[in-house]
Task: inverse folding
């Protein structure tokens, strides 16, 4: 059962057709912004370094180069303005920009034909022309795609300033049931989002829940849930009255969908509308540059947390596992030179090795976690060296596709020795086998010699997984 509100227009909760249309228009706007940036840089270089640029091109008149540079800066300003016009004006205005780009390419060819440029000048203008031609053609394709999308929809897209859409989706080798508890862990979200310092739920999760977010500079704002579909999706609307950024509207949607019996598609959609004026427009341009790595980091963190957590872990324990700060690892034990956080990181890394999504990720995790000459011994295998350990893990998971490993209980450690309980669960979350691992670590916290036992875990280490 899903619930939603009609008190404010939801752009992330609109029909898929509307979301796709805004995405198409946003892509065109971003191409125009790239065009404006390239033209600005090229023009400023020509103005500031007119003499050297004239020498490069083989042109005697420096004033011609500087005049051309000033014209490029003016063109960049026009293109930037076009990138933020209302949607009904975007298509004709962007067409004019593309015609200007193609005109630049045509003018470049004329200079070649007349022999006005030196060899180095021809090379420089060819490079510039290729970029300009690429941008012009890309803008024409994006314009056509936006025109088709808008023509097929009856929605109103003419807000001023325009609402833009950013989405990020990724296929994960974990189930939607595993990912959902991680996605609603607000503390974890704040740790993964590079622009946030804290995110605190003010009311119980569900439709209408409120959370407070604080950025790295200590500025806070509130968010309200406008749609709640347990196990699948939730949307929030940001209260921009106390938002520290120049946005008139900001909405987000977090979702996960089953993709196959043991996988899912997890993603986010954000809709934002800048405040009127140059500050809002510039901020949105920067947002489009910053968002992709931030969203990628968040989704990867979710997948990692879901992979390294037991199916029955609480939300709080998932946060602890993914950031490597599980409390109360060892009570009143003499750890000598090995500290608690090092061992937590080591054991978390151990499960990352087992649950890595591919051989490359597994090799990287093993290099971080295992010493070069490490050994691993259990009732079915005895191997030495990182490569052999990686091959053993891959062979095990080839035999049990879709299975994963999770820690049971806390760590127990003294001196350079550590032990923990573990379980292997199938794609449905059912425990297949459990056991104990005992390992020595070096002074860098890496596993040196590991011995595994199948069967009853350490006393007091219980799992709620169903056999």
Result:
């Amino acid at each position: 059962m899903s619930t939603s509100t009609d008190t404010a227009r939801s752009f992330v909760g609109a029909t898929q057709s509307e979301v796709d249309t805004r995405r198409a228009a946003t892509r065109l706007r971003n191409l125009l912004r790239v065009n404006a940036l390239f033209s600005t840089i090229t023009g400023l270089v020509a103005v500031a370094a007119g003499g050297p640029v004239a020498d490069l091109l083989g042109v005697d008149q420096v004033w011609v180069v500087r005049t051309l540079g000033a014209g490029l800066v003016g063109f960049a300003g026009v293109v930037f303005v076009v990138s933020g016009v209302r949607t009904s004006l975007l298509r004709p205005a962007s067409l004019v920009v593309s015609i200007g780009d193609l005109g630049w390419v045509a003018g470049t060819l004329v200079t070649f034909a007349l022999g006005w440029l030196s060899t180095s000048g021809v090379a420089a203008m060819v490079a510039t022309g290729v970029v300009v031609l690429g941008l012009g053609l890309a803008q024409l394709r994006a314009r056509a795609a936006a025109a088709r999308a808008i023509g097929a929809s009856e929605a109103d897209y003419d807000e001023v300033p325009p609402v833009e859409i950013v989405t990020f989706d990724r296929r994960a080798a974990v189930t939607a049931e595993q990912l959902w508890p991680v996605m609603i862990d607000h503390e974890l979200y704040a740790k993964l989002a590079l622009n946030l310092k804290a995110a605190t739920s003010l009311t119980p999760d569900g439709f209408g829940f409120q959370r407070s977010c604080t950025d790295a500079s200590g500025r806070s704002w509130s968010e309200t849930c406008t749609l709640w579909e347990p196990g699948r999706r939730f949307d929030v609307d940001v209260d921009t009255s106390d938002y520290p950024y120049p946005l008139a509207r900001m909405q987000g949607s977090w979702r996960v969908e089953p993709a196959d019996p043991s996988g899912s598609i997890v993603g986010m959609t954000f809709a934002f509308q800048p405040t009127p004026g140059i500050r809002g427009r510039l901020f949105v341009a920067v947002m489009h540059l910053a968002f992709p790595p931030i969203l990628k980091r968040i989704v990867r963190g979710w997948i990692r947390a879901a992979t390294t957590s037991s199916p029955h872990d609480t939300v709080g324990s998932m946060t602890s596992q993914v950031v490597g700060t599980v409390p109360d690892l060892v009570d009143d034990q003499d750890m000598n030179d090995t500290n608690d956080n090092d061992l937590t990181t080591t054991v978390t890394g151990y499960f990352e090795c087992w649950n890595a999504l591919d051989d490359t990720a597994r090799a990287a995790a093993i290099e971080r976690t295992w010493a070069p000459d490490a050994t691993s011994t259990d009732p079915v295998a005895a191997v030495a060296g990182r490569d052999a350990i990686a091959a053993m893990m891959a062979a095990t998971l080839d035999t049990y596709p879709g299975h994963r490993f999770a820690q049971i209980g806390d760590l127990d450690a003294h001196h350079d020795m550590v032990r923990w309980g573990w379980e292997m669960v199938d794609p449905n979350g059912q425990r297949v086998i459990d056991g104990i691992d005992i390992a020595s670590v070096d002074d860098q916290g890496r596993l040196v010699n590991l011995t595994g036992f199948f069967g009853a875990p350490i006393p007091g280490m219980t799992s709620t997984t169903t056999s």
